[in-house]
Fold these 3 entries.
Entry 1:
Amino acid sequence: MRFIILTVLVLLAWPAAPVSAQSDATGQSIADKLPLFVKNNCQQIRDPGNQLFCGDAELAAAADRLGTAIEARLARLPDRLPAIEENAIWNRQRNLGCGIIGQTAVRADDVERVKACLLKVTEERAAILRNPDFDCLAANTAAGALICADPSLALAETELNSQVLGLIGKLDPTAARFAFAEYGRWTRERDRKCNLVGKENVPLAELESAEDCLAAYLKQKTDHVAAAKGDPKKVFGRQVAADSPDTDAVDFCAARIHAANSCGNFLRINRVYALDSQVTDQEAQVTGEIEMVVLAPFTTCSKVAASCTGTCWDARTGLPQPGVGGRERSGDAFNVTRRIRIQRTFAFVKAADGWRCREDELTPVISGTASGGS
């Protein structure tokens, strides 16, 4: 349900300052052209395109059909979060394609033309999403494309996904957050082990050597889940240490920090790299880079920013702005699909079961950048 809610946020945009209903040469306003505009309080919606969906019954019905198609697609996807990014990108392209520029309100005399365009592209989008083949076309990672293109890999991933979600469904909300974070870490670990990180634009024919690795990883995890015999505590929440102070260790540490702070509502960890390490017999310091993708808007200097990215940010430069604390600031926010990269040094201590992370927050970061999105 959390994923569906996030997707709805993406499609409806983020409420902010209301957009005024502009009038045309005849004195008519957009409210006069949209029967439900006043009743639904549509002037409070920031996105001009979504104002039309709010104020027109025909567009609202098309949006409902699109929402049903989105939910059906999410049910098919083993990893649902990238679909949120893709929906957000489509949402912006939808507006641009129909002549809506940024937050500029639609003129009353343009309503019919823009409405016809929005209706057409929304119906087309719903039809596309109902086609299972679209999932392969929309795969935004090399591993995702390989799995989708191979029926046996796709079946294996679907089976694993089904079993894992069944286990997580038995957990309380707090434990489920940590389990979802750990499941996301499995995907990143898989891509690293199969040498597929950063190969999104490589032709599939050149990646076929990774298919055996993917199959073996999926089988290993499926067997692990099956061995738990329906007990989620035998799969999640047991691993508290990493084998070596390396990229996997940094990923495990970052994933647990994100789960503890409910960051999955706002950010997805996309990639993790270990850049440098200093290791002794009992202690280690590992400097890692963590790339995150924004799933839902949040203020650039807020509790979410501090807890989930380790710092406040300067929205204009996209650079960290440390030392400002967690104070909320109005106006500046990170929008959906923005990518944030931070570098931070993590401390680990050697224990009987491996290397344990000694960090419980991302602050302070060494450096960072925020790019993409709008």
Entry 2:
Amino acid sequence: MKKYIIYIIMASLLTACSKDFLNKEPHEFTDAVFWKTADQAESALGGVYSPLQGEEALGGEEWCGMEAFSDIGYMNDNYSDFIAMTEFRAVQNTENDLSLNSYKSYYQVIKRANDVLYNVPGIDMDQTQKNRILGEANFLLAFAYFQEVIRYGGVPVYDPSNTESALTRATGEQVWGAIETSLKDATTQLPFDHEEGRPGQGAAWGLLAKAYAYQKKWQDCKDAAEKVISSGKHSLYPVYSDLFTLDHDNESELLWVLGARYDSYPITPVLYLPNNVWGGAHAEPVGEGWRLVSATNAFYDTYQPGDKRKKATVAKRNVDVITYNGSTDILKAPNNQSEVVCVKFMQPYAADYTGWAPGLNVPALRYADILLLHAEAMMNLNGGGPENRTTGVTVAAQSFNLVRERAGLDAIAAPTFNDLMYERKMELAFEGGDRHFDLVRWGLAAEVYNSLTAEGTYKPKRTFLPATHNLLPYPQQEIDNSNGSIEQNPGYN
């Protein structure tokens, strides 16, 4: 094995003593002194988590910003290159603050997870502890590859025995294969019971079901989802809005969360918070909210009557009552471009504004998502799906209606794919861009996006061309750094 420097940049991630597994000092070791002890293995694993905390990854702007690609959100802040991508008019990807830094953060996870998987098997340590470390590394590796492949298609598949592998782009199919392999390994290494902030076996099976759905492997998707459903370890929390509070941000519905603690990353709540909630009607620290991403008026109007998720997700200026910084009143938000803001992650600020990072975990993978993927698999296996959107499928009803009835809506005996599209849109809104990636994988993005009229200057009329826009343009700096071995995605310069 070549000698190489291993950088483990530890960020303090989580809030209680139960989360000490990531609260370590930074280290820098060479092979000669590292990969010797169980403590070093745990420290290296902590380093796999740390890039996810960053402002431009799962813990911040990019995770929120992906919603601007869909029909439900837009970016308030002037990231011109990123906005050009969300409006499908970009010719390349030079957005360093969001896109490039996100790409690099997820690839850091890929590099560090592979180092753990390559070196930890040789450490003499407790086998149960070793299995858990390897299982977490496999899950995080798959999660990072998943985020890269749905954005860019094929990316380099890193081999720790050949560091030059980072300069050779794999195909999308090869990346999906790597994801499947890692998650299958993780299902044999992880227990269902897990510490807060760590993935358990439910997360591994759940992400595997999602990976299968993206590849249209419907029987495999169904089987993987049923591993989670039949485990008895996960269930829907009764009150949808409470999932996004400090008291309930680690319920059994949350298969995996990116853990948070006060005054540190992640910073999701402040990213959605308007920078002037009350417009002078009540006391507040004006300017503290970043209002990075907001909702469209059109999205606000698409909720079905009685859907409890509406109040938990969005609020409209001069219409809806919210609670913020100790006051309860009608939202003003005069600086917001649309009339609608996302309030899904604002509850930590209900009593008072507590800083840019109030300690709310990021809901990276939820049981509701897996139930809807199971229903989707059942539809596709029984005559439904994107090509037969009005065909009712009775066998999809059980999983589907658990999510729907939690939202306060009547059950549907034979839900259609159109029904499923509504549920996924409303259930997962503002959680990392699932709406956009769903429309792309269903082959419906052009139909949905191209039929929308402009909504102000913040959400203009757009033209989506699947041959180009199913993928984002590859980060130009990564192309340049590869000396030509990485090529741009089709349709971009």
Entry 3:
Amino acid sequence: MLTDTFAPRDSLAHISLAKWADAFVIAPATANCLAKLACGIADDLLSTTALAMTAPVLLAPAMNANMWRHPATQANLKTLLARGVRTVGPGTGHLACGDDDVGRMSEPAEIVEALDALLNPRRDFAGRRVLVTAGPTIERIDPVRYITNRSTGKMGYAIAEAARDRGGEVTLVSGPVSLAAPEGVKLVPVESSAQLCAAVLEHGEAADVVIQAAAPADFRPARVAEQKIKKTGEGMTLALENTTDIAAELGRRKRPGQVLVAFAAETEHMLENARGKLERKNADMVVANDVSRADAGFGVDTNAVTLITKDTVDALPLMSKRDAADGILDGVARLMKL
């Protein structure tokens, strides 16, 4: 066991460890640890080793629930995830402070499983064509105004990256987002729900798996003004019409052996609404999440999803969206018997 940065005396411990390791696991990773790693602070053996490490890094966060939810901790987590650091947990359960809430360190078996996945990435989607949709759509009112929603595309992009890393041939149909295009993924940019529908139907026919993580608008202006609508002081009435139900159209066209995954972003009656969507859209799985939660809604780097099929309900704990992406693909793999 090493505790001294400058031991053994004939070498610098943090450099020796960084060169020796195949992976670096920090469990528990406290709020203080996440802050140090995010800022590049190196003032003890742990942080200096982390700064010198070139091997994959896996963190198992553990802290009080309020500390976990604090914007500073979430910002630090976002920074680390952007650098390629992987996380496992935290889970929900009894905490040292006596609360039952999120922040409990993942169990050792879960950490070992996550480490194995990090060092031995699965290739279970090799040879499979995966179509993923992500982000919002915008429906124009006039040349300067439009209707949209709060989707940032983070979940869909995480799924595309995870499917790519698991060997899939991935096509990503994306609405307008501020995310960088994932390397090794075919990106098809779209703007409106009509464009999204056309792209999905074009590329979906040949796909083995279609994962509909985008948030297309349900309504669009019935008429788009050619010029900017001027403010007159009398207000404005906006007539809306339905957009095409893309999920239902895919379900209608689903071919034998193809797996369709729909998303259900709900604010109430999540399981009931998701089960209804599973049947109405002829989907094989619905990924449901409560977007009213501050830690699992739009714009954050974590998610807590429930995977619903005809026969199963699998609630995943709060985790990074990348880890949630792998959980979703695990569900798809079970359906495909990979």
